[in-house]
Write a structure and sequence with these properties.
The chain is α+β, with helices and mostly antiparallel strands. The protein contains nine helices and 16 strands. A hairpin with a 2-residue loop joins strand 7 and strand 8.
Length: 291
Amino acid sequence: MTETSDFAVVRDRLRLQMFDATELGILDLTTSPEEMPRVQFVAAELYIGLQIGDEAVVTVAQADAWDVSFTDALKAAFESLPPLEIGADRGVTEITDEQQVAALFLDPSRAAGLEVSGDLAIVPLAQTRVVVTGTDDERGFARAIEVADELLAEGARLASIHPIGSHNGQWSPFPWRDRFPALAEAISRVTREFGVRAYKEQESALDAGDVRVLEPKLDKLETGGTVTFATWLSGTAALLPVVDNVFIASAQGQIGVMGFAQFIEQAGDAVVRTELAPIRYYIPETVKISA
């Protein structure tokens, strides 16, 4: 028995850790199932795992060798944490401690000291930078957009741009774009930029052979809004990201454009949604669409 396979030995060194779908999706491309981080799903793109001290994360193989459930292992790490410290503004706060963020995902009641408007909501921008507010507080979500812009300007990696809300202790995606129309354009802008960066991160880990990995690009409109697009050469095998528009190039040099949904419908059943995260669609070379 190795040291890390004995739960009693590592119990007091366990630390909570956040994971996101893009991060796990990239690891899945290069890591065996047994060596993947053992995680528990939270909501949207978010997961919680464990780390042993400052060492590597707890893998599936390690967790399966313990004589306790993974839920109990998470509980052990959770119970070692001090209470959540809350700043002067009890309606909107930021958490920069990854373990405290993960603990809040496990038990939303840790934020009981906050005085939020509506249900508790979290915008989990990064493992060490989340905004906590209320589902009825537009000011809190405006702050989240400001923080997202700061992180994007710094070139920092974002974990997610999709808020989650807690209702009766259960987390679920929160539709902030629909809830706050005045913020809709800014939300769309940061969401698109987050998506483009996530695809770029994924692209560096993909080994697609002869299949083209199409790169999403961001275009700023004169109105101040943004759109995403990718360019596909008709009749070539490719992995297509989810974008607003698909530019279609023909071998003869003609170029046309379609909205994403229209393109998928026109391409037909030959196009397959893959299990990659972020999502990509596989287009076989047999698909030909006129530009």
